[in-house]
Write a structure and sequence with these properties.
about 220 residues, five-stranded mixed beta sheet, 8 strands, rod-shaped
């Protein structure tokens, strides 16, 4: 039973809050009204309607208020309205969420701008007063570990005396120079001896020369 009374109390509180938050909207604003001289479309675009609000139409006897379907609203059709009001001070409670459409039934007034589309929201959504939570700072980036020094390469084993010293020839080893040649005092190598081919060509030239000389002498 206590739970039931608690639920009833919560429901009553919600209804009271809704009634407190409900607003009355006079179509066209304080400087206008339900007539062809008021920019009704600009007025309604600046409003936000929620369930519990009241829409108030104030107009002269040459106007009325017709609630119509979306199709009749778009075509300004007045022949089959959902509801007709002509008391000059019509109060329409916005009791459920959704879109509702109203036009003036006087000939030509709808096309002159006397039509209004009301989009009623289920609940109001007042802006949150709490500041947006600050994003937590990202953890400081840890410095990149410095590259560890490359380990010193272990010293290679000592080279043998021959490789370390460039394999110098042993002082006691035999000389590679031929025994018959001695270094020139000027540091230049002596001219090579004439080859056998050169010797043969020289002999051939001399033989031909003597042969030609003998032929000349014989001819004289």
């Amino acid at each position: 039973m206590a739970v039931l009374w608690t639920l009833v109390g919560l429901a009553a509180t919600a209804m009271l809050i809704q009634l407190t938050m409900a607003a009355n909207y006079t179509v066209g604003g304080s400087n206008g009204g339900w007539d062809s001289s008021t920019d009704i479309q600009t007025w309604v675009a600046s409003k936000k309607f929620v369930v519990g609000d009241n829409l108030i139409f104030q107009y002269t006897p040459n106007h009325d208020v017709l609630e119509v379907t979306k199709a009749d609203y778009d075509s300004c059709q007045t022949s089959s309205p959902i509801q007709t009001y002509n008391d000059g001070n019509t109060i329409i409670p916005l009791s459920s969420p959704g879109k509702r459409y109203f036009i003036c039934g006087t000939l030509g007034h709808c096309s002159q701008g006397m039509q209004i589309e009301i989009d009623t929201l289920a609940t109001s959504t007042p802006p949150s007063s709490s500041p947006a939570p600050k994003s937590s700072p990202s953890p400081a980036t840890s410095p990149a570990p410095s590259a560890s020094p490359a380990p010193n390469s272990s010293p290679s084993p000592a080279k043998s005396p021959e490789s370390a010293s460039g394999s110098p020839s042993s002082p006691d080893g035999p000389s590679t120079e031929s025994p018959g040649t001695s270094p020139s005092p000027s540091g230049l190598s002596p001219p090579p001896p004439p080859s056998s081919a050169n010797r043969n060509s020289v002999r051939t030239c001399l033989t031909l020369g003597f042969g030609l000389l003998l032929m000349v002498l014989t001819a004289q």
